[in-house]
């Protein structure tokens, strides 16, 4: 199994190197793609000392989809699979070795059927036995995707820039007859937003507290996805309502966030995609 990896950086903190080291030694090659406006010298110097690792400064924030597609194209013809990682994600000890074995076994049993392998990132559903699960969607961080088949369906949708990049890719995989397999016993440390919790009529609801610009992308991209995939339209309409309700009920900077949400609704309906350039 020839496995490359990619980690996408954006203003990384000091923990990023230790995160990368939880999986880099188990890869045949690692692409470190830096979307920060100015290259991060500490990271680039670290990669120079690491064999089979290459640092790319992207010249600014090009978005998650662009970075993932860049890595897929770099890997094509050299590696069969690509591990896609966020900078704030880290594997538990020994997990990558097991993960690779399980992917190889699944490929022997179901060749050319799987479009994405994923892991347990919320750590709330750890099974007693090592059984896999079929999923409808998965997050990109910690996922392993076949290089050639991913490129054959068009790679990641660069209209999205950030948010719903992974979900849209999964919907397209399924439209093309590919399966999404989760190994819930493979554990990943991964953070989603600055989570707090809201008690609403006795129900505990997670609130992610993303900033205003992130709310823009979340809302706009969800409108884009629901327009593109009618089969998930009701689910995404419910997500839109939930996101707005949480801002109103539980988050700070409500006025600013609602301003960006309103623009996200407008751009999503109008199809104004890519990187947000301001009002």
Strand residues, percent: 15-25%
Going by helix content, strand content and strand pairing, the class is alpha/beta
Strands, total number:
11
Estimated helix fraction? 25-40%
State the distance separating the first and last CA atoms.
47 Å
Largest sheet: 5 strands, mixed
Global mean pLDDT: 93
Describe the strand arrangement of the main beta sheet, using strand numbers: 3-2-1-4-8
Low-confidence stretches: none
- SSE succession: EHEHEHEEHEEEHHEEEHHH
* Overall shape: globular
The total of helices stands at 9
What oligomerization state is this entry in? Answer: single chain
Please state the CA-atom Rg, rounded to the nearest Å. Answer: 19 Å
Describe this entry's structure for a reader:
The structure is a single chain. By secondary structure, the chain is an alpha/beta fold. 39% of the residues lie in helices and 22% in strands. It has nine helices and eleven strands. It has helices at residues 16-20, 41-48, 64-75, 95-109, 147-152, 165-175, 212-228, 233-250, 254-270, and strands spanning 3-9, 29-34, 53-57, 81-86, 90-91, 114-120, 133-134, 143-146, 179-189, 196-200, 203-207. A five-stranded mixed β-sheet has the order 3-2-1-4-8, sandwiched between helices. Strands 5, 6, 7 and 9 form a four-stranded mixed β-sheet that branches. The chain has a two-stranded antiparallel sheet with strand order 10-11. Strand 10 and strand 11 form a beta hairpin. Helix 7 packs antiparallel against helix 8 (233-250). It is globular.
């Amino acid at each position: 199994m020839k496995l490359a990896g990619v980690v996408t950086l954006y203003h990384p903190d000091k923990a990023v190197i230790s995160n990368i080291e939880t999986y880099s030694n188990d890869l045949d090659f690692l692409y470190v793609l830096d979307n920060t406006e100015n290259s991060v010298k500490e990271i680039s110097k670290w990669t120079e000392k690491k064999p089979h690792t290459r640092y790319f400064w992207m010249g600014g924030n090009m978005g998650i989809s662009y970075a993932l597609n860049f890595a897929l194209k770099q890997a094509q013809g050299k590696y069969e699979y690509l591990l896609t990682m966020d900078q704030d994600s880290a594997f538990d000890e020994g997990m990558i070795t097991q993960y690779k074995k399980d992917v190889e076994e699944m490929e022997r049993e179901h060749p050319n059927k799987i479009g994405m392998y994923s892991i347990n990132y919320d750590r709330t559903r750890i099974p007693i036995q090592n059984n896999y699960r079929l999923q409808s969607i998965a997050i990109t961080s910690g996922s392993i995707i076949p290089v050639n088949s991913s490129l054959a369906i068009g790679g990641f949708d660069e209209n999205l820039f950030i948010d719903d990049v992974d979900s849209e890719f999964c919907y397209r995989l399924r439209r093309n007859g590919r399966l999404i397999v989760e190994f819930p016993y493979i554990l990943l440390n991964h953070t989603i937003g600055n989570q707090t919790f809201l008690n609403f009529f006795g129900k505990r609801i997670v609130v992610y507290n993303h900033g205003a610009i992130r709310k823009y992308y979340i809302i706009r991209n969800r409108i884009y996805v629901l327009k593109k995939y009618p089969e998930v339209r009701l689910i995404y309409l419910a997500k839109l309502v939930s996101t707005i309700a949480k801002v109103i009920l539980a988050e700070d900077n409500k006025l600013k966030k609602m301003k960006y949400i309103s623009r996200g609704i407008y751009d999503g309906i109008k199809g104004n995609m890519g990187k947000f350039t301001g009002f």
